[in-house]
Design goal:
Structural class: alpha+beta
Number of helices: 3
Largest sheet: 6 strands, antiparallel, barrel
Low-confidence stretches: 1-27, 29-38
CATH architecture of the largest domain: Beta Barrel
Helix content: 25-40%
Radius of gyration: 48 Å
Mean pLDDT: 85
CATH class of the largest domain: Mainly Beta
Strand content: 35-45%
CATH superfamily of the largest domain: Efflux pump adaptor protein, beta barrel domain
CATH topology of the largest domain: Elongation Factor Tu (Ef-tu), domain 3
Strand order of the largest sheet: 3-12-15-14-13-16
Number of domains: 4
């Protein structure tokens, strides 16, 4: 190569190297700035602020449904045969209604005998009274001794005593005749029946069991620490096993606490159903419920804004740079589609509602109106 051209070649090579380096540096700088310039929102969301609401205060409990009171209907006749049973399990009866009938043949025979004995005693008493009256008229004449007159008077008194005894025996037989008919001691619903036609039962044998007045109660088990919140008259919403709900009132609180479970029974009167067959509550079934203790002010957020992850509840706060921050909160009571927040959130904080379940901490979002 010509000696004059060598310096020029060196100059061009150096210039080309500088240009390449500049281009590479510019490209690297452009690549570093490109993500920021072309960053896109992870999701389009809506936001809101917590609001205040009045939420009911409730105390949850579980327990069994039982009869308010049960009555045992037993036989008061001894050695009589049962001839008729007029009611069955589930029947509604009124006080004094005949439930079963025993054979009265033997009792009627004994009753007739007692009546005859009474008539005999009355006849003997009339004769004794007449003799005593005649003896008293002759008392001053000396025709009868004092001893004889005393005997006539004693015979009169004895005859009167036999009348009283005969009347008592007659009343006893009449009572036995009355007992041949088993009647309901109160209005209610027959819950059990052991009476069988043809059976000969002794006195005191149980024939029926009945729920007095058809009244049921919910016996809720409440821990001792919560008893101070309850008192008679408080309402309770009780839920049956089939999903039916009814509202009852606390009748009384047990005066003792079970030392094993540290809980006490709270007795809640349940309203009576028009038809016992279709009643949602049956004695012996399990039921859950909530006592209504009033209401209090609370800070609430939409249920959609709460995200549950790893067993904890979170909301996403919207920052000024349109990025979101994950905040751990403590949820409380529920009312419809809103949830109370007990802690971890300020009342003026903007939080994500729609789309919160798809966000992660630090995501960039696009906010739209509701």
């Amino acid at each position: 190569m010509n000696a004059k051209l060598k310096p020029l070649a060196y100059i061009l090579a150096a210039a080309f190297a500088v240009s390449a380096a500049s281009i590479a540096a510019y490209s690297q700088a452009a690549d570093e700035k490109k993500p920021e310039a072309t960053a896109k929102a992870a999701l389009t969301v809506t936001i809101t602020k917590p609001s205040n609401a009045s939420l009911p205060i409730k105390l949850a409990a579980n327990g069994n449904v039982a009869a308010w009171q049960e009555a045992s209907v037993s036989s008061e006749s001894n050695g009589l045969r049962l001839t008729e049973v007029r009611v069955n399990v589930g029947d509604v009866v009124k006080a004094g209604e005949v439930l079963a009938v025993f054979s009265a043949d033997t009792v009627n025979a004994d009753l007739a005998q007692a009546q005859a004995a009474l008539h005999e005693a009355e006849a003997n008493a009339a004769d004794a009274a007449a003799n005593a009256a005649r003896a008293r008229t002759l008392q001053n004449s000396g025709a009868l001794s004092v001893q004889q007159i005393s005997q006539y008077n004693t015979a009169e008194q004895t005859a009167n005593a036999r009348i009283a005894s005969a009347k008592a025996a007659l009343a006893s037989q009449q009572l036995r005749l009355k007992y041949t008919k088993v009647v309901a001691p109160d209005s209610g619903v027959i819950s059990a029946r052991s009476a069988t036609v043809g059976a000969v039962s002794g006195a005191g044998t149980e024939l029926f069991r009945m729920i007095r007045q058809g009244r049921l109660e919910w016996r809720a088990e409440v821990v001792a620490a919560d008893l101070r919140h309850l008192k008679p008259g408080i309402s309770a919403v009780v839920k049956a096993a089939n999903g039916s709900e009814t509202t009852g009132k606390v009748r009384m609180i047990a005066p003792t606490v079970d030392p094993q479970t540290r809980s006490a029974l709270v007795y809640v009167d349940l309203p009576q159903s028009a038809s016992t067959k279709d009643a949602p509550f049956k004695a012996g079934m399990f039921a859950s419920g909530q006592f209504q203790l009033g209401a209090s002010d609370a800070m609430t957020v939409p249920q959609q804004a709460i995200v549950v992850r790893d067993g904890f509840s979170f909301v996403f706060r919207l920052n000024g740079d349109k990025h979101v921050s994950q905040l751990k909160v403590q949820p409380g009571r529920r009312l419809g589609d809103r949830i109370e927040v007990l802690g971890g959130l300020d009342a003026n904080t903007q939080i994500v509602v729609r789309g919160a379940g798809f966000l992660n901490d630090g995501d960039l979002v696009n906010v739209v109106a509701k």
